[in-house]
């Protein structure tokens, strides 16, 4: 078996265009030759088809996607037959949320509108016993009409799938910037894990920044388990304090302190003016924030210092051990026995 390409048939689907590529799969725009509809086909690269962990994730993504039926979730289709590993999905005309996210953030009402839709989707998803666990802008499509569509359930926790156990997966899963602290600590998480991710996405939509930053992912992950986030008003002072309250409630480090359900968060998102102020921004530990900034600056200094040190070491080596001149070839001409 070989990699598929544009112009070929994959069972009932005619592949007509590559719309995205990742490190593990390609997504093709295709035509279902049975009903003529346009679909999307996600095909993993050949080297991953024999990977047991990847196969489990891919199978989970397909099974969860088929079971869930909601306007806010990309629908997974069922082919008449499958000759190899792939996922057939509805084709979405639109862009990823990531393409919309940039400094200084989206207009407040636009960010709220998208967050409400995502919260509504989580209400449905959690009601079906599914926790996404990898909610991030790259896994959210926004249609031309403004509807959000969640996709990629490869590491979802599905309570209905008893055979898919936690022990068979990596202990730390997710995307560092949007992972909840409990995921960083190796726990499997629950519905509040998705709420943390949604709170982080809303934070970024409103400010164009993330609550934690650092020179590398390890600094970010460590900060999440031990430090307070920067309040959104640190980047956008004019932000509605009620919205800041919602965001900080969703990204509390301890799951017990977050919203207990997507329904509770949705209620606040629908009318932020009714949110009871808990002054969460004022309660953020100033020492923690100062320490975070100091560590960030120290990380940058150490990184550039190590680069300069490596460069100087190479110069020292070059001077101490100059390249040897070419050794002349020995000649036996004129030698006697």
Give structural notes.
This protein is α+β, with helices and mostly antiparallel strands and 337 residues long. It has two domains: 9-90, 2-Layer Sandwich (Phosphorylase Kinase, domain 1), CATH 3.30.200.20; 94-294, Orthogonal Bundle (Transferase(Phosphotransferase), domain 1), CATH 1.10.510. 37% of the residues lie in helices and 13% in strands. The strands form three sheets. It has a five-stranded antiparallel sheet, with helices on one face. The chain has a three-stranded antiparallel sheet with strand order 6-8-9. It has a two-stranded antiparallel sheet with strand order 7-10. The longest helix has 35 residues, at 286-320. The termini are far apart.
CATH topology of the largest domain: Transferase(Phosphotransferase), domain 1
Stretches with pLDDT under 50, minimum 5 residues: 163-172, 329-337
Helix percentage range: 25-40%
Strand content: 5-15%
Number of helices: 9
Count of strand segments: 10
> What order do the helices and strands follow?
EEEEHEEHEEEEHHHHHHH
Q: What characteristic shape results from the CA principal axes?
A: globular
Q: Mean pLDDT, nearest integer?
A: 87
CATH superfamily of the largest domain: Transferase(Phosphotransferase) domain 1
How would you characterize the largest beta sheet? 5 strands, antiparallel
CATH class type of the largest domain: Mainly Alpha
From the alpha carbons, calculate the radius of gyration and give it in angstroms: 26 Å
Could you give the order of strands across the largest sheet?
A: 1-2-3-4-5
**Name given to the CATH architecture of the largest domain:** Orthogonal Bundle
Number of domains: 2
Distance between the termini: 66 Å
Given the helix and strand composition, which structural class is it? alpha+beta
